[in-house]
Write a structure and sequence with these properties.
By secondary structure, this protein is of the alpha/beta class. 45% of the residues lie in helices and 15% in strands. It contains 8 helices and 7 strands, in the order βαβαβαβαβαβαααβ. α4 links the parallel β4 and β5.
């Protein structure tokens, strides 16, 4: 039997990259999905891929930096499929590159809005729905930069550190109510967020930061998200799992 049979799931940022891979993995294992992204064309493409594989999904356009959009996204899952059991808060942006003293204020606000506020807004409404459905799992997408720093991305680093702390706090609050909340920390993954913004020479340099000697694939992150979302991870909550080719072991 599929490990997510009879489950209803939300995946944000599912129009490409890691989010799309997670949505496809969930659908393959029997979940009914609400695919969400601010990019409607990408979201519709993900829907087509799910349908071609025999899965069940619908699309909802949402800006995760909006509390109201997050509320409506949860409502969509409940109205469409009768409840909510799994949520993956994956949507994120890279933001500008600049030293802290030179970092644009509007860039800071946008990155924090999507990457941190968006996770809080998502969980705020998702947890209420999960409790009404008898429990479930939330996966928050942080980064290796949720555990360490890097130059010239202060907003991204701060937001991802915040996601890790928020995950732990919420996991403790709901551990005895059947809601598990965990966090994934991808290293540099070959997704549009990376490849659309960096040239091949820079990508080659980034490969060298990983002891495994390559960039990660979105499917490798999706496999972990799938496990954490399933009953196979029933004793796992408040945890942070890097998928980073050894980056954080250095």
């Amino acid at each position: 039997m599929a490990i997510l049979a009879n489950k209803v799931a939300i995946v944000t940022g599912a129009g490409s990259g890691i989010g799309r891979a997670i949505a496809l993995a969930y659908a393959k294992e029997g979940a009914k999905l609400v695919v969400s992204d601010i990019n409607e064309a990408g979201g519709q493409e993900t829907l087509s891929l799910i349908a071609a594989a025999g899965g069940v999904a619908s699309f909802f356009k949402a800006d995760t930096s909006s509390a109201e959009d997050n509320r409506q996204l949860v409502d969509k899952a409940i109205q469409e499929y009768g409840g909510l059991h799994i949520a993956c808060n994956n949507a994120g942006i890279g933001g500008p590159l600049a030293a802290t003293a030179d970092y644009p204020i509007d860039g800071w606000n946008k990155v924090i809005g999507v990457n941190l506020n968006g996770v809080f807004y998502g969980m705020h409404f998702q947890i209420q729905a999960l409790l009404k459905s008898g429990g479930g799992a939330i996966i928050n997408m942080a980064s290796i930069l949720g555990a360490v720093g890097t130059r010239f991305s202060p907003a991204y680093v701060a937001a991802k550190h915040g996601v890790l702390g928020l995950t732990k706090a919420a996991a403790l609050e709901y551990a005895n109510q059947g809601v598990r909340i965990n966090c994934i920390g991808p290293g540099y993954i070959r997704t549009p967020l990376l490849t659309n913004n960096l040239d091949e020479a820079t990508l080659e340099q980034i490969k060298g930061l990983h002891p495994i000697g390559r960039l990660g694939d979105a499917d490798e992150v999706a496999e972990l998200a799938l496990w954490l979302s399933s009953d196979k991870a029933s004793f796992v909550t408040g945890a942070y799992y890097p998928v980073d080719g050894g980056y954080l072991a250095q």
